[in-house]
Amino acid sequence: MDKFVTHRGTVLPLRRSDVDTDQILPAEYLKRITRTGFEDALFRAWREDPAFALNDPVFAGASILVAGHNFGTGSSRQHAVWALRDWGFRVVVSPRFGDIFRGNALKEGLLPVQLDQSAVETLWDLAPDTLVDVDLAAREVRADGFAWTFPIDDFTRWRLMDGLDDIGLTLRHEDAIAAYENDRAAFKPSTKGF
Amino acid sequence: MDNHCTVLLLICMVSPVAQLQLAMELRWDTGNDAEAAKRRILAEQAKAMPRTLAEKVWADHVVRAADGEPDLLYIDLHLLNEVSTPQAFDGLRLAGRRVRRPDLTLATEDHNTPTGYADGSFHARRGELLTIVDPISRTQVEAQRKNCAEFGVPIHSLGDAGQGIVHVIGPQSGLTQPGMTIVCGDSHTSTHGAFGALAFGIGTSEVEQVLATQTLPQARPRTMAVTVTGELRTGVTAKDLILALIAQTGTGSGTGHIVEYRGEAIRKLSMEGRMTVCNMSIEWGAKAGMIAPDETTFEFLRSREHAPRGEHWEAAVAYWKTLVTDDDAVFDAEVFLDAGAVSPFVTWGTNPGQGVPLDDVVPDPSGFADETDRNAAVRALDYMALRPGIPLREIPVDVVFLGSCTNGRLEDLRAAAEVIRGRRIRDGVRMLVVPGSDEVRTAAEAEGLDRVFVEAGAEWRFAGCSMCLGMNPDTLRPGQRAASTSNRNFEGRQGRGGRTHLVSPQVAAATAVAGRLAAPADL
């Protein structure tokens, strides 16, 4: 995973709430078995509308997606994160994220930043010209004299700033996993011989 | 793990009040067996602190806890489907890792699989297997087959009697049991919580993590109780209950919580009904939904293929009976709902929280106090091609879909068949009946349910996710409107440009007969 420490970019305003993962990446694109190359699928259906923000050249190059509440609800598809990342987003801002989407984004170094609705609306108004700084070390978003702090736990922040992946971290505790397995109840089911 | 580590870990897990006393007691244990110390302290902890069902199951799966870090949770069962796993297996290969516990892993094919033959027919032809025509779908399904063969993971492939929707085959085989941790790269994994399991959907990176380590680092979610008092009225189902709850709470209010559904109305639900409720937990944002196991749960499991037997059964039931929320346990949030006030419920919009009773009319967005909700409603009505004020019962449909991991079990098919029996599906309406698994299909045929549907003019199809999501040949055409027993009414969910009204199996059946949204009592 790429490290995330700070990011400077411009905003793409997505003035919608409850943006579900079926909108971010429609199911027909879930059939691919690669981990990259999903940028063509991003918001595919909404892009049919020429007025949709992603089609607007004034927002070209924007790397901070700012959306209404409940962004990334619905399906567990990590493909939605791949599509956002492949398009060029490094940060998504919303007052609230779907839990699975948020977890998936954190695995890929796409930073989900939780800010309240008024900050979101201010950021919408700052698009497309204002440069916005997203500072993970300080847990802060700064732009045009504004500064908002956002919540993120120490462990996750450290993992992102060092670009560490969870599997590598977990395998350090192999002995604890083996000890747990030795102690599991005998009645727990197995899929052996299924 | 050495004794020193164990002691530190366990002290972190207990409340500050009890820490001093436990630390003193631990001096006696450091030279002894660490596991004995662990059990003793956990028992001590259980006595000291009343806990919720979720907290008990969570605590029983903590492999490692450390201050300021997420808990490392052991996973008892990892279910795979073809959509979320190819990239995870690629990751294993790249890192030179194996699947740690193929014996706790099971794969099935469901999202891409067709529910009929390539020629469009869906009448079973002896000895003829279904084929996947779309080359991209086929590649994805074949990728999982190859991966399972290479890594030694058991799989139920298309044409195998054990094949079906991943969340239907776990429970039907008895693999889903109380007190387990169950994950799958699919958000409707919450279904398994109906058994008192802690079950939740994960993304592909987490699938890779569980394949490699059989564990997941997880921050401890908050807990929430949803207490459903009273009794559901005749003709009102678990689906109506959960749709009404989501409409009341909104799509995001469960975020970050493990929800426990409890109360008289929940206790009276069958396992199938409980699965429907837990299945849709994710639709209001909950991390997981759980229902404490009881006699209904044990009875459901008793004869299942993978349920414990003999003395293992006795030991299991003794443990399962401890999986209830203690009387004095405190939830971080509580929601109450009166089951007696729930009536058949349908959605009018493009998220599962946009629903009203079938008796109602399409709401007027100008009546929404919150600006965000108002804008969302305007957009939704535009997409759904509906005007405010229209009675729901006047909305005609083109397609009725009965199936999915929400409502594709035998009880759902029986309930719909009861409504359809002796009636005809309205001319011009297409009804797809899709069992949740091959086993459900076989059981339904043994009862003659297939004939009821076929005689009424419905399509009796093969098992799979089908029209719940647009990944296989069963899709809506642009502009088509469906009454669907599935779980999501998102834009384009059932096919690009398709419009979805979420309903119960009974409402789906009545709607197929009436040609417009209807309850059985309307026929």
Textual characterization of the structure:
The complex is a heterodimer of chains A (194) and B (523). Helices cover 29% and strands 16% of the residues of chain A. Chain A is built from seven helices and eight strands; from the N terminus they run E-E-H-E-H-E-H-E-H-E-E-E-H-H-H. Chain A has a four-stranded antiparallel beta sheet with strand order 1-6-7-8, covered by helices on one side. A four-stranded parallel beta sheet of chain A has the order 2-3-4-5, with helices on both faces. In chain A, a hairpin with a 2-residue loop joins strand 7 (140-143) and strand 8 (146-149). In chain A, helix 2 (79-87) packs across helix 3. Chain B is an alpha/beta fold. Chain B has helices spanning 3-13, 16-26, 34-48, 53-59, 86-95, 135-151, 166-173, 204-213, 238-249, 264-267, 271-279, 295-302, 310-320, 371-384, 404-407, 410-420, 438-446, 449-456, 505-514, and strands spanning 62-64, 71-74, 77-80, 105-108, 155-156, 181-184, 198-201, 215-218, 222-229, 257-262, 288-290, 333-338, 345-347, 355-357, 399-402, 430-433, 459-460, 481-484, 499-502. Chain B has a five-stranded parallel beta sheet with strand order 5-4-3-6-7. A five-stranded parallel beta sheet of chain B has the order 17-16-15-18-19. In chain B, helix 6 (135-151) links the parallel strand 4 and strand 5. In chain B, helix 5 (86-95) crosses helix 8 (204-213), helix 9 runs parallel beside helix 11 and helix 16 packs parallel to helix 19 (505-514). The radius of gyration of chain B is 24 Å and the shape is globular. Residues 1-32 of chain B have low confidence and may be disordered.
Radius of gyration of chain B: 24 Å
Mean pLDDT of chain B: 92
By DSSP, the count of extended strands of chain A is 8
The separation of the N and C termini of chain B measures 66 Å
Largest sheet of chain A: 4 strands, antiparallel
Number of helices of chain A: 7
Question: Which residues of chain A form runs of ≥5 with pLDDT under 50?
Answer: none
Beta content of chain B:
5-15%
Number of helices of chain B: 19
Dominant shape of chain B: globular
Percentage of residues assigned to helices of chain B? 25-40%
Q: Give the class of chain A from helix and strand content and strand pairing.
A: alpha/beta
How are strands sequenced across the largest beta sheet of chain B?
5-4-3-6-7
Give the helices and strands of chain A as they follow along the chain: EEHEHEHEHEEEHHH
β-strand number of chain B: 19
> Which term fits the overall shape of chain A?
globular
**Derived structural class of chain B:** alpha/beta
Q: What is the arithmetic mean of pLDDT of chain A? A: 96
Beta content of chain A? 15-25%
Oligomer: heterodimer
From the N-terminal CA to the C-terminal CA of chain A, the straight-line distance is 36 Å
